[in-house]
Design brief:
The chain is mainly alpha-helical. Helices cover 68% and strands 3% of the residues.
């Protein structure tokens, strides 16, 4: 999803451009083999995958409300923090599961490209109120997701157990019915055999 911090920077640039000028998807892809430190294709694919842009019927690239919400800020680092927060909130990437473990342990487990994103977003250096708030909010999101997953797993396990119990009960009932039928057949057979073997009275 995130190839590099350069891709997120290039998306910021694309948003700035689209707020001032119209550009068609085909024009963008054909006219920019490189876009910032990324490529036009990488920028388009990433922004589309995140639902930050879409293509109108006319072929023009359009900023979505989700995209506008994810690209707010007064400078590069603040926009990057916003982008990362919205990616975590909407997409729950695997690396984000480390956030509740705390900054030091989380960063140690991040892929290199994600660590670079956090560094450029000024989330790894000096502690400020904004940085503390960002970590707290993003960690809270991932803790809530983990809790929902645990609850869902427990519900599935309970349903599976109940289903297994129900199946076992049906099987037991079926076996009981089979045995009863077998006993009735056996009793009938023994009765018929006894009749055959019983000596007839002489006249």
């Amino acid at each position: 999803m995130i190839r590099s911090v350069g891709t997120l920077y290039a998306i910021q640039d694309l948003f700035d451009h689209l707020e001032q000028h119209l550009i068609a998807k085909d024009e963008f892809l054909a006219g920019f083999s490189k876009y910032g430190t990324s490529t036009a294709l990488d920028v388009y694919d990433t922004a589309s995958e995140l639902s930050w842009i879409c293509t109108a019927d006319s072929g023009q690239l359009v900023l979505t409300l989700i995209g506008k919400d994810a690209n707010q800020g007064i400078d590069r680092p603040s926009k990057l923090r916003c982008q990362l927060a919205k990616i975590i909130e909407a997409n729950h990437p695997t690396w984000a599961a480390l956030l509740p473990k705390g900054r030091k342990e989380a960063v140690a487990g991040f892929p290199e490209e994600i660590r670079q994103c956090f560094d450029e977003a000024l989330l790894l250096g000096e502690i400020s109120e904004e940085v503390v708030s960002w970590w707290a909010q993003s960690s809270s999101v991932m803790r809530a997701i983990a809790q929902r997953m645990r609850v869902a797993t427990g519900v599935c396990a309970a349903k599976e157990k109940a289903s297994s119990t129900s199946i076992n009960a049906r099987d037991t009932c079926h076996v009981g019915k089979v045995l009863k039928r077998a006993m009735r057949v056996t009793t009938f057979c023994l009765y018929e055999i006894a009749k055959i073997k019983k000596p007839s009275k002489s006249k």
